[in-house]
Amino acid sequence: MDACRVIGLISGTSVDAIDVALADLRLRGDTVELVPVGHIEAGYPADVREELLAALPPAGCTAEQLCKLDTKIGQAFAQAAGRALAELGQADVIASLGQTVYHWVEDGDCLGTLQLGQPAWIAESTGLPVIADLRARDVAAGGHGAPLAGLFDQLWLKDEIALNIGGIANITRGSVAFDTGPGNALLDLAAQMVAGQSYDKDGALAPAGKVRHDLLDVLLADPYYRLDPPKSTGKEYFHLSYLQAALDEVPAVDGPDLLATLVELTAVTIAEACKGHRVVASGGGVRNPALMAALSERLDVVTSDSLGIPSDAKEAYLTALLGFLTWHGIPADPPTGAAGPRLLGSITPGRGPLRMPAPAAIDVRQLRVTPLGGSLACS
Ligand SMILES: Nc1ncnc2c1ncn2[C@@H]1O[C@H](COP(=O)(O)OP(=O)(O)O)[C@@H](O)[C@H]1O
Ligand SMILES: [Mg+2]
């Protein structure tokens, strides 16, 4: 029986927290069965988060800063994994998507991508093997390396559209998966500018404002929205200077109007990409009622919770799935534009030598999510 327990670790572009999920995964014919055992949100130490945000674009940073961040983020991920092992249960292997600090896209092609969070720290403190750098091989094979959620969504939902609203929003629609543009990225920057808050908690600020159509038009003129998929983007593009440049093109904008306009931008660009279909939504944006109301005006939205995957841990469960596939020697085929399925990631041994399961000689065609109850035994 090809079964194991995998911890998935990720911190998205919002840099709000490290999301950790523990999943029981098992192969049954051409189906992967996933039991979501549990998830936690582990905070970054405040100084690490601050250092990280200060080093990200549009700011520059040095090799010294990158080295220190790689170490401190690796340590924070190790601590998060340790918490998950203590609070959620034991695991066989850990998968980490790390912290994206730069996603290099030029003329619509992804040329490189950098995730920090040195896996040696995770392996050293947990004693478990760690599969990390899960995007690089997809990029080397001509893909965008993101969004990898397309792999999970295609196997799980088949014909429905999946939407994840993190710092950047992405969808999986039929045979393509791509970033639609900013999810919460610009909203979070605006909440900081307007109210000194890291995000607009419960969408409190936006409803007091009105959409400024002059600003919305400037923002919607960005050519990114008209690029054909596959495509990906990040906060090295949708950053503070980007927002400031748009604001400079129009008369002064009130704080609440700025929030209302950015809610509209996120909703319009997502809805345009989803073409009026029902979507299964996840990510922190689901917790912003102003954003969800704007989306619901245009789309039939349900959250992934209703289908068994907690909306705030979907990407952590995706990470666990990616780790499971690599651990079992199964190439992954996310619809990111890569030349074909590839074995993703780099593996750091745990306390002992690597003892991996025999490679499974199957094409995975389905992901079945079953609720916790009949827990899967490990082989
Ligand atoms: N209660 C809330 N009200 C409004 N927005 C929220 C709330 N909770 C989370 N968010 C938004 O979700 C973001 C984090 O979402 P997440 O899916 O973790 O993104 P990422 O994958 O980029 O880290 C926060 O930065 C914030 O914008
Ligand atoms: Mg996050």
TrEMBL record:
Specify the pathway.
Answer: Amino-sugar metabolism; 1,6-anhydro-N-acetylmuramate degradation; Cell wall biogenesis; peptidoglycan recycling
- Assigned protein family: Belongs to the anhydro-N-acetylmuramic acid kinase family.
Q: What is its EC number?
A: 2.7.1.170
Q: Which domain of life is it from?
A: Bacteria
Does the keyword section mention ATP-binding? yes
Q: Name one Pfam family in it.
A: AnmK
Q: What is the lineage of its organism?
A: Bacteria, Bacillati, Actinomycetota, Actinomycetes, Pseudonocardiales
Does the keyword Nucleotide-binding belong to this entry? Answer: yes
The record's catalysed reaction(s) read:
1,6-anhydro-N-acetyl-beta-muramate + ATP + H2O = N-acetyl-D-muramate 6-phosphate + ADP + H(+)
Function, in words: Catalyzes the specific phosphorylation of 1,6-anhydro-N-acetylmuramic acid (anhMurNAc) with the simultaneous cleavage of the 1,6-anhydro ring, generating MurNAc-6-P. Is required for the utilization of anhMurNAc either imported from the medium or derived from its own cell wall murein, and thus plays a role in cell wall recycling.
Q: Which UniProt keywords apply?
A: ATP-binding, Carbohydrate metabolism, Kinase, Nucleotide-binding, Transferase
Please list the GO terms describing molecular function.
kinase activity
- Its gene is anmK
Task: Fetch the InterPro entries from UniProt.
Answer: Anhydro_N_Ac-Mur_kinase, ATPase_NBD
Q: What is this protein called?
A: Anhydro-N-acetylmuramic acid kinase
- List ligand-binding residues for ATP: G12, T13, S14, V15, D16, A17, I18, D19
